[in-house]
Amino acid sequence: MANESRPCPCDIGDRFDYGGRGQEVQVEHIKAYVCKPPASTDRAVIVIHDIFGWQLPNTRYMADMLAANGYIAICPDFFVGQEAWKPSNDWATFDDWLKTRNAGKIDKEVDVTLKYLSEQCGAKKIGVIGFCWGGAAVQHLMLKNPHLKTGVSLYGVIRFFESRSSLLHPTFFIFAEKDDHIPLEQVTLLEQKLKQNCKVDYKVKIYPGQTHGFVHRKREDISPQDKPYIEEGRKDMINWLNQYL
């Protein structure tokens, strides 16, 4: 990896050797990965990828997991054709790379995705989940987009709660205790703001001993001590969606 002395915290974990059960489609100006459940449903989940982009096998694995639990799952390319981050990239260049990929400027892509889900898939109840960069995007959407029913933000950098914290929809925040990217004092501050201002249901949960990306970037079979928390995080995510969709 480039810049070994200060690796990107999002590089922690494993890339799954996984092909995916869904298919790639064109949704207006963006490409997307879609996986549908065996039985027809009007419930759908938009999956917002991390910095490694919409083609990361780990993220497609999570989309397929949602489909296996009865949801239409779609993971659009929110970088809109721009290159995803690569583990071989120099972490020192990350800030410049990020400037052209703003997690708060995805509204156009979300709108065309919502239209696709409604018109092409028959979806009536739509939620959103996101990992890392995508987790921050979920926070943005939960503060702004009236058309979504609920959201799960997984280790999203807490950037959209400095001036606002009145969520529009029930939101579940998943954090890792040993996340070098998101200090626990930030999580505490987030909880305080939500407690003061939030009128809808929310939950903030910190998973003991876990690092950034643990829900989708770790494999249960090679980290046995983490397996219960990986499974718990995934189960909690599904249960939250089941409750509000």
UniProtKB/TrEMBL annotation:
Main location: cytoplasm
Subcellular location, record wording: Cytoplasm, Cytosol
InterPro entries to which the protein is assigned, alphabetical: AB_hydrolase_fold (IPR029058), CMBL (IPR042946), Dienelactn_hydro (IPR002925)
Gene Ontology, cellular component aspect: cytosol
Nucleus among keywords: no
GO-annotated molecular function: hydrolase activity
Keyword Transport set for record: no
Dienelactone hydrolase domain mapped to chain residues: 30-245
PANTHER family registered for this protein in UniProt: CARBOXYMETHYLENEBUTENOLIDASE HOMOLOG (PTHR46812:SF3)
Similarity remark: Belongs to the dienelactone hydrolase family.
Listed name of the protein: Carboxymethylenebutenolidase homolog
Gene source species: Nycticryphes semicollaris
Lineage, uppermost ranks: Eukaryota, Metazoa, Chordata, Craniata, Vertebrata
